[in-house]
């Protein structure tokens, strides 16, 4: 690990200012992803701003009848919140489908949105990776790509956004609230938060340097049946091959977002409009797919997983 | 036959005295490292942190890069907590901080100012075992024992999480009381790997403790 200086701050504005003051600074909260990457020297911040003392650890009700989730609320606390379990069950289900109990106790809402890809070529510093080292190429395309993306990917990068929580947040139309170094705040719809890779896969979100996530807001409850279904190579503690977050009415209409296939939680308007027609919805979700030989199975898997979710919504065994 | 004195030296004692020998030199290892690094483009930053470890206050002056795991093992000399993968994948380093289990390898020690840390040494002692430690012994919840401290810290926390109503991936309902069933225990323990494969016995040890508590 490269040496770094460290400071604690007590407010979001102080955090953003501290990051702007020090060159090469990063915010740290749970640290479960950042420290892992720092040990491998994939992340090499010169300065860490510890934001755990900024008080952003509450879940409060908004005037619009939704919830505001502080950026520091842990995955465990969020999944266990009575209001979330009752009104946003897909979010609780998505969170407990990811990581391990130890990691969920530490991982935060803000940090989880910034979790970096788990592409093995991003992690292996001996390999070419445009995301880790811009311009070095992509070893994944000709490599082991079973786990990697099929839609929204580019010539430069076929990595996926790996998380589960954000897939549920996408289907719930969550909004990310931030503060910039100059103190201004903004609200970013989750669907616009993660960038598609294009030619710059090292830039993963629309956040500006030094901009800090302060909260994630949920609109008022949607009702309906909430389902998160995750397909993976191992039954627990593994990243998704394909996951589906769904909020469905009794007639099978509703909305879905897909995890494990793209640089961001994948939601397509035409797919939502096509429901309950699984084939048409899956076609819309995988339209324009450019899979490798090794991950082409994900196209069929999206349809099958979606079919399983629809069956579950109808009360049949998935 | 009497054992010569030198056989009474333990492996752990040798390791500890080796470290002490280094520190007793005219120059501290920290300073020596900084001075002998040719491209010292980044200065090593030191930071003081105080926490309570197993009920005892500890104040440590640490390189900011030190993980909670390394602070426990190398600085406080509590070697019960084990380093497996050092990347949060195996769970051998699991400790309980402020009542919640975490991977101590993926947490900076300096971020634990004022925290309450419980390691395997703080759960029980050889003379007065924690019920979970006793159950692991009774049910053979280990073979080589390397993952065991992490397994036990995790197991103790899992039963608390179930009692607190924290849902898991296999919980049929998100609301209402959670069950300490076998499938729940297995799911919730998936962040602790045992290469010897003592899983079924670990689940039985946990079931016994859960049953006593219920």
UniProtKB/TrEMBL annotation, chain A:
Pfam families (UniProt xref): FAD_binding_5
Keywords (A to Z) from UniProt: FAD, Flavoprotein
Domain annotation FAD-binding PCMH-type: ranges: 1-223
Signal peptide: none
Protein name, UniProt field: Xanthine dehydrogenase family protein subunit M
SMART domains: CO_deh_flav_C
InterPro entries, A to Z: CO_DH_flav_C, CO_DH_flav_C_dom_sf, Diverse_Substr_Oxidored, FAD-bd_PCMH, FAD-bd_PCMH-like_sf, FAD-bd_PCMH_sub1, FAD-bd_PCMH_sub2, Mopterin_DH_FAD-bd
Annotated source species: Novosphingobium mangrovi (ex Hu et al. 2023)
Parts of the chain that traverse the membrane: none
UniProtKB/TrEMBL annotation, chain B:
A Pfam family annotated for this UniProt entry: Fer2_2
InterPro entries linked: 2Fe-2S-bd (IPR002888), 2Fe-2S-bd_dom_sf (IPR036884), 2Fe-2S_ferredoxin-like_sf (IPR036010), 2Fe-2S_ferredoxin-type (IPR001041), 2Fe2S_fd_BS (IPR006058), Aldehyde_Oxdr_Iron-Sulfur (IPR052914), Beta-grasp_dom_sf (IPR012675), TAT_signal (IPR006311)
Entry's EC annotation: 1.2.99.6
Start and end residues of each 2Fe-2S ferredoxin-type domain: 47-123
Gene3D superfamilies, alphabetized: 3.10.20.30, [2Fe-2S]-binding domain (1.10.150.120)
Entry keywords, A to Z: Iron, Metal-binding, Oxidoreductase
UniProt keyword annotation of Iron present: yes
Enzyme class: oxidoreductase
MF terms in GO: carboxylate reductase activity
Protein origin, superkingdom: Bacteria
PANTHER family registered for this protein in UniProt: ALDEHYDE OXIDOREDUCTASE IRON-SULFUR-BINDING SUBUNIT PAOA, OXIDOREDUCTASE, IRON-SULPHUR BINDING SUBUNIT-RELATED-RELATED
Protein name: Aldehyde dehydrogenase iron-sulfur subunit
Organism of origin: Novosphingobium mangrovi (ex Hu et al. 2023)
Gene: paoA
């Amino acid at each position: 690990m490269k040496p770094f200086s460290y400071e604690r701050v007590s407010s979001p504005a102080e955090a953003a200012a501290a990051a702007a003051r020090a060159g090469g600074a990063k915010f740290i909260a749970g640290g479960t992803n950042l420290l892992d990457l720092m040990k491998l020297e994939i992340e090499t911040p010169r300065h860490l701003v510890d934001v755990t003392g900024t008080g952003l650890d509450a879940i409060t009700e908004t005037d619009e009848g939704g919830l505001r989730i502080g950026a520091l609320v842990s995955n465990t606390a969020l999944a266990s919140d009575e209001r979330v379990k009752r009104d946003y069950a897909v979010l609780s289900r998505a969170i407990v489908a990811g990581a391990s109990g130890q990691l969920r106790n530490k991982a935060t809402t803000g940090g989880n949105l910034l979790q970096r890809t788990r592409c093995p070529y991003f992690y292996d510093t001996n390999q070419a990776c445009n995301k880790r080292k811009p311009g070095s190429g992509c070893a994944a395309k000709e490599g082991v790509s079973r786990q990697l993306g099929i839609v929204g990917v580019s010539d430069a990068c076929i990595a996926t956004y790996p998380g589960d929580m954000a897939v549920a947040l996408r289907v719930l139309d969550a909004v990310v609230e931030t503060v910039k170094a100059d103190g201004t705040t903004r609200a970013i719809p989750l669907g616009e938060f993660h960038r598609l890779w294009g030619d710059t896969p090292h830039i993963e979100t629309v956040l500006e340097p030094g901009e800090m996530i302060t909260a994630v807001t949920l609109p008022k409850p949607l009702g309906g049946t909430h389902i998160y279904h995750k397909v993976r190579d191992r039954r627990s503690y593994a990243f998704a091959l394909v996951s589906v977050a769904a909020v469905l009415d009794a007639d099978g209409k509703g909305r879905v977002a897909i995890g494990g296939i793209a640089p961001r939680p994948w939601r397509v308007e035409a797919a939502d409009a096509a429901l309950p027609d699984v084939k048409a919805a899956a076609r819309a979700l995988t339209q324009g797919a450019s899979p490798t030989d090794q991950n082409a199975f994900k196209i069929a898997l999206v349809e099958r997983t979606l079919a399983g979710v629809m069956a579950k919504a109808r009360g049949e065994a998935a | 036959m009497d054992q010569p004195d030198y056989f009474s030296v333990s492996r752990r004692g040798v390791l500890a005295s080796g470290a002490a020998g280094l520190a007793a030199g005219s120059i501290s290892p920290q300073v020596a490292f900084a001075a002998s690094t040719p491209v010292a483009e980044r200065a090593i930053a030191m930071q003081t942190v105080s926490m309570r470890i197993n009920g005892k206050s500890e104040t440590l002056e640490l390189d900011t890069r030190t993980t909670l795991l390394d602070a426990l093992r190398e600085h406080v000399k509590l070697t019960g907590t084990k380093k497996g993968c050092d990347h949060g994948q195996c769970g051998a380093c699991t400790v309980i901080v402020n009542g919640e289990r975490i991977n101590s390898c993926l947490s900076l020690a300096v971020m634990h100012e004022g925290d309450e840390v419980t390691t395997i040494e703080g759960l029980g002692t050889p003379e007065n075992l924690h019920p979970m430690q006793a159950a692991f012994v009774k049910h053979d919840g280990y073979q080589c024992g390397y993952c065991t401290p992490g397994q036990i810290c995790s197991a103790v926390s899992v039963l608390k999480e179930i009692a607190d109503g924290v849902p898991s991936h296999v919980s049929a309902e998100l609301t209402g009381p959670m069950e300490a069933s076998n499938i729940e225990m297995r799911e919730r323990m998936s962040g602790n790997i045992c290469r010897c494969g003592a899983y079924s016995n670990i689940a039985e040890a946990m079931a016994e403790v859960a049953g006593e508590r219920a």
